[in-house]
Amino acid sequence: MQKEFAIIETGGKQYMVSEGDTLKIEKIKGEFKAGDKLTFENVLMVDNGQDTTIGAPYIKGAKVSATVNKISRAKKVTVIKYKAKSNYFKKRGHRQPFFEIKITSLK
């Protein structure tokens, strides 16, 4: 039998999640700390192994609950702009913030 899963939308991206999954998502605006509970209401699809429900665009009443495991920033991405023979060199670094979450339930 297939495991139940849902497809949620957050941070402009879509994620396929099942109960117990751990994933990294874009930082969510607001005051959050590790251990906080999150609820995602933008559920695009739910499949329980027998029935598939597809939203248009979202499923009314469907929710995915999660807890925040960690709030951190990713490894540094270095961006270098360089033009030969013109004395042009720019170096910038960026660390993207993210939330690491664990899915607790699909409703």
UniProtKB/TrEMBL annotation:
GO terms for cellular component: cytoplasm; ribonucleoprotein complex; ribosome. Keywords: Ribonucleoprotein, Ribosomal protein, RNA-binding, rRNA-binding. It comes from the Bacteria. GO terms for biological process: translation. InterPro entries: bL21-like (IPR028909), bL21-like_sf (IPR036164), Ribosomal_bL21 (IPR001787). One of its GO terms (molecular function) is structural constituent of ribosome. NCBIfam families: L21. Belongs to the bacterial ribosomal protein bL21 family. PANTHER family: 50S RIBOSOMAL PROTEIN L21, LARGE RIBOSOMAL SUBUNIT PROTEIN BL21M. Part of the 50S ribosomal subunit. Contacts protein L20. This protein binds to 23S rRNA in the presence of protein L20. This is Large ribosomal subunit protein bL21. It comes from Candidatus Adlerbacteria bacterium RIFCSPHIGHO2_12_FULL_53_18.
